[in-house]
Design goal:
The chain contains ten helices and nine strands. With 235 residues, the protein is α/β, with parallel strands linked by helices.
């Protein structure tokens, strides 16, 4: 069974589909690429059984008939965190709590940073929108450095290409050469819900639904938490 996902969920999905296979469900080969490329390939009709993307992107694919809207299922919630370069660190640890006390402190940190790294994904779009709402677009525009599609912000930080980086905590945790300061403060938090859906081009839609149900169940919550994701609220 074939699936495609954005880079943000590649590690957690590897463990989730392994758990599904251990439970006797069909094996799933997940290809992880930049979210924009993943959505484009699905929209162009490339055959996949399952699609895993941010819920907004997945909703647009459902509206266009490329995935089954009835199967769109939230799987994990990701918070955006802030990190800085830290040469010599083997694996960044995810702290428990926000990096700064409030949005005002976050604004001051951005204003003091010479180069600010952000992603091509939904977290990057939300960060730029927040900067615009704060009226800082002109002042910070020349200092914003967008990572290339499929390249984590952590790599730019570790290479010294940026001085401050904002990306999903799950993408920063465990990466070498960086220190995670924490998530964004509550009054300017950015969260992304990543979801799954069965593609309308699926060759095994029943098997895909069964895998998706397992991935949304509490049986795999511990895997999601281990990868620095939160579990979506269940009805």
């Amino acid at each position: 069974m074939r699936a495609i996902s954005s880079m943000a969920t590649r590690h957690v999905l590897a463990d989730l589909v392994a758990a599904a296979a251990d439970a006797g469900l069909p094996e799933v080969e997940v290809e992880s690429v930049g979210g924009v490329d993943a959505a484009r390939r699905v929209a162009e009709g490339e055959p996949f059984d399952l699609v895993f993307l941010a819920d907004g992107a997945l909703g647009r694919l459902a509206d266009a008939g490329h995935v089954d809207a009835a199967t769109l299922t939230p799987l994990v919630v990701s918070e955006v965190a802030v990190a800085v370069p830290a040469p010599g660190v083997d694996a960044a640890v995810a702290p428990d709590g926000p990096a700064f006390p409030d949005a005002a402190a976050m604004r001051e940190t951005l204003l003091a940073a010479p180069r600010i790294g952000y992603s091509t994904g939904p977290s990057g779009t939300a960060l730029v929108a927040m900067i615009e709402r704060w009226g800082l677009a002109d002042e910070l525009g020349g200092r914003l450095v967008q990572a290339r599609p499929g390249i984590p912000v952590a790599a730019s930080l570790a290479a010294g290409d940026v001085d401050l980086g904002c990306q999903q905590l799950s993408e920063l945790a465990g990466q070498p050469g960086i220190r995670i300061l924490g998530t964004l403060p509550d009054d300017c938090a950015i969260t992304t819900v990543f979801a799954g859906a069965v593609a309308t081009a699926a060759t095994d839609p029943d098997g895909a639904r069964a895998v998706l149900a397992l991935l949304a169940s509490d049986a795999v919550d511990a895997i999601k938490v281990r990868h620095s994701f939160a579990v979506p609220a269940r009805a």
